[in-house]
Amino acid sequence: MNSSVMPMVYFVAPNAEHFDDIQAQLRLFSFDCQVFTRNSAILAAMHTTPPFAVVIDEQGLSDVSAKMCVPLISKLSKGPVIFLSNAHTIAEQIDLMRDGVTDFLPKPFNSQQLIDRLDSLQELARPDPYRVLVVDDSEAVARWTCGVLTDAGMHAKHIQNPFEVILQIERMKPDIILMDVYMPECSGDEIAKIIRQNKLYDSIPIVFLSTETHRGKQLMARSMGGDDFLVKNMEPEELVASISITAERYRQLRRWMTRDRLTALLNHTNIIEELSREVDRAHKECRLLAYAMVDIDHFKMVNDRHGHMVGDRVIKSLSRLLRGGMGKPNSVGRYGGEEFAVILSDHTLMRAAQKLDELRHSFSQLIQISSDAGEFHSTVSIGVAQLQDGMTAQQLIDAADRALYQAKAAGRNQVGLAT
Ligand SMILES: Nc1nc2c(ncn2[C@@H]2O[C@H](COP(=O)(O)OP(=O)(O)OP(=O)(O)O)[C@@H](O)[C@H]2O)c(=O)[nH]1
């Protein structure tokens, strides 16, 4: 793991004891951490290298109280300021928020809770720009539209030829299509109808952009598969607001349809669809592809001993580790209860096995917390297989499954390779 790209978390506390474990746990999830006990040291560090987040203990520093240091640290902070405290009244929390605190965590805090919070804050910190596909025969109109959307931080792409639309949807995976109504080759509603033929694309919002003000014609176009109708030459702010609302609604809907609720990973159906696409691509372009099944060991025992909620947390910690380890958001999915699927594009069997073995080791080092039984560790078994000539996605899954079975039979907590 390259420490230079790991987001840094500064801890502000009166002493540095007990932080070794937290540091080790954060590192497993690709966060670096540094502890400060003196006011001058934290202020100097905030000046020179502002971290991704600061975590301030309610006891403050060894030489300054929390009340004194919070406003200064918050002013220098470019990211979240998390305050660790026992119970605080709402009035006290509001005071702290006015001083710059953005988040609160209860004490005694555990690294899992903190990682959960850092994880969601990190997602908020780098939102994925909306992708907008603009289909318009007029170069000038499209240039203006793309310019407005790009200035608003979106990723906009223009195509003049409506017949390229399917190809571009496949390539760009737009969150919304902005479609001209009248084009020389065909009309926007005809293209919308073609797009809606494909089950994969039938929920992408299509917004018509036209000078058409006739209500009857607008409604007709919407009945052909358009979701909204915007009139050309509208104010830029109105265009941006309209596109953002529709694109966000689509993203939420997609998240709900394609992602597993507990882990936010791709669900069973969608990870298999993703694998099928990768298998096709690998065969077509002669690329390497490996695939793995990851299964938590003796998970029934974890549930029986520590309860279902702790079991859920173990599942979440593994999913977060796999997602972080793979980098690409669509390469990991929840295959079933405590079983995960991992797609490793452009990996040989050995490279995939090595990477997965590092993740297996990291997972075994994670401290899992149970309220009744204290801390414990879990392990995973992994089966990995490589795509061979002519192999289907299902055959690849079966090969990885057999390798997983061998890893379980050989004692668990290991990576099995498909022969
Ligand atoms: N907490 C929790 N448990 C789950 C979830 N989905 C499945 N399980 C449990 O996972 C356990 C899987 O148990 P088994 O298939 O017997 O396997 P195992 O105990 O992990 O044993 P090995 O795989 O042989 O190491 C079952 O007890 C399920 O109830 C979930 O979403 N949350």
UniProtKB/TrEMBL annotation:
Reactions that this protein is recorded to catalyse: 2 GTP = 3',3'-c-di-GMP + 2 diphosphate
Residues modified to 4-aspartylphosphate: 57, 180
PROSITE patterns: GGDEF, RESPONSE_REGULATORY
The EC number(s) this enzyme carries: 2.7.7.65
UniProt keyword list: Phosphoprotein
InterPro entries referenced in this protein's UniProt entry, alphabetically: CheY-like_superfamily, Diguanylate_Cyclase, GGDEF_dom, Nucleotide_cyclase, Rev_trsase/Diguanyl_cyclase, Sig_transdc_resp-reg_receiver
Domain GGDEF intervals: 287-419
Keyword Nucleus applies: no
Keyword Iron: no
Domain Response regulatory, first and last residues per copy: 8-122, 131-247
PANTHER family reported for this sequence: DIGUANYLATE CYCLASE DGCM-RELATED, REGULATORY COMPONENTS OF SENSORY TRANSDUCTION SYSTEM
Protein name from the UniProt record: diguanylate cyclase
